[in-house]
Write a structure and sequence with these properties.
- The protein has about 325 residues and is of the alpha/beta class.
- The chain is about 45% helix and about 20% strand.
- The protein contains eleven helices and ten strands.
- Strands 1, 2, 3, 4, 5, 6, 7, 8, 9 and 10 form a ten-stranded mixed beta sheet that branches.
């Protein structure tokens, strides 16, 4: 076969290269167009805890409403284990196409990402594209009937009068309840001893029995005992009073300004999720979280409904990580 002249061969190479580039460009166009068409199939919403808890209930309310708003089913999948790390890490590794999302307990995830950095499987700054904070669950400073303190100022004075003579129960080492108490110790200038439990229920049972003196736990865990007179609430850790406990002052009102702690819940996508998809999710959530039945459902779980933009959510998560990193370092808290 007769070979082509060099000039002809070079020309053909240019034409082939141009055709290949055009083909690649055309192949890329549908992916961008699909961002606008998203979602075109069901979405998986991972809840990293067992069914029935506050995170699960909030996830199912948000998921059902998102499905209606987006025109595709949102299927809730409970992926529990490793204090929420298993589900969060699984979502972090998913393809960032908007079809797998996380309804996470962001305070717990923020703590775990620092305290268990080697094993958590995710980084709160690098692994996720935040969509919105959807709710905050307040904590309540609660004492048992044997503690001789009618208010927070009296409790602080009592603790200062007997360093390491009082103790506090928590739902476990490294839990938000544990770190909230450590933050309290630093801000109030007191020394109280940590007694970790495997969950809130045993800690609160021992609080009622007088085995521990104080517990910093969530409103849903404590409010029935407070209303029943079995425990005494000294303060809530919120900027404003909690509607469910209108007679209980905030920590600031009780004399400890700046002691504000809540358990934060929110919607995350894997890092790299396209901006148009993040924007569509954000817009849908804004409308959902303005609906009264959604607000009522969150309040029933002890959560204060919240909506933030993706940028605000990222900033709040960053602040959460920085805050608890400082407490973990100062208190020398080690993973179990």
């Amino acid at each position: 076969m007769q070979s082509l002249p060099p000039a002809t061969r070079a020309g053909r190479r240019c034409l082939l290269a141009a055709a290949l580039a055009a083909g690649l460009g055309a192949a890329a166009l549908p992916a961008r167009a699909n961002d606008a068409a998203w979602p075109e199939r069901p979405i998986r919403l991972v809840v990293p805890y067992t069914p029935g808890g506050a995170t699960d209930v909030i996830g199912r309310v948000v998921g059902q409403k998102l499905g209606t708003a987006l025109g595709q089913p949102v299927v809730v999948e409970n992926k529990a284990g490793a204090a929420g790390n298993l589900g969060a890490a699984a979502v972090a590794k998913e393809k960032p196409d908007g079809y797998t999302l996380l309804l996470g307990a962001l305070t717990s995830h923020s703590i775990n990402s620092v305290l268990q950095a080697a094993t958590a499987g995710f980084d709160m700054e690098k692994s996720f594209a935040p969509i919105s904070i959807v709710g905050r669950v307040p904590l309540v400073v609660t004492v048992g009937p044997s503690v001789q303190a009618k208010n927070l100022a009296e409790f602080i004075a009592l603790a200062k009068s007997k360093p390491d003579g009082l103790n506090y129960g928590s739902s476990g080492n490294g839990s938000p309840q544990h770190l909230a108490a450590e933050l309290f110790k630093r801000q109030a200038g007191v020394k109280i001893v940590h007694v970790p439990y495997k969950g809130s229920s045993p800690a609160l049972n021992d609080l009622m029995g007088g085995q521990v003196d104080v517990v910093f736990d969530t409103l849903p865990a404590t409010q029935s005992f407070i209303r029943g007179g079995r425990l005494r609430a000294l303060a809530t850790t919120t900027p404003q009073r909690v509607a469910a406990l209108p007679d209980v002052p905030t920590a600031a009102e009780a004399g400890l300004a700046g002691f504000e702690v809540s358990s934060m819940f929110g919607l995350l996508a894997p890092a790299g999720t396209p901006a148009p998809i993040v924007a569509k999710l954000s817009a849908a959530l804004k409308g959902i979280l303005a609906q009264q039945d959604v607000k009522d459902a969150l309040v029933a779980q002890g959560a204060v409904p919240v909506y933030t933009t993706p940028e605000q959510a990222r900033a709040q998560i960053r602040d959460e990580v920085a805050r608890w990193s400082k407490v973990i370092k100062e208190a020398n808290i080690q993973p179990e």
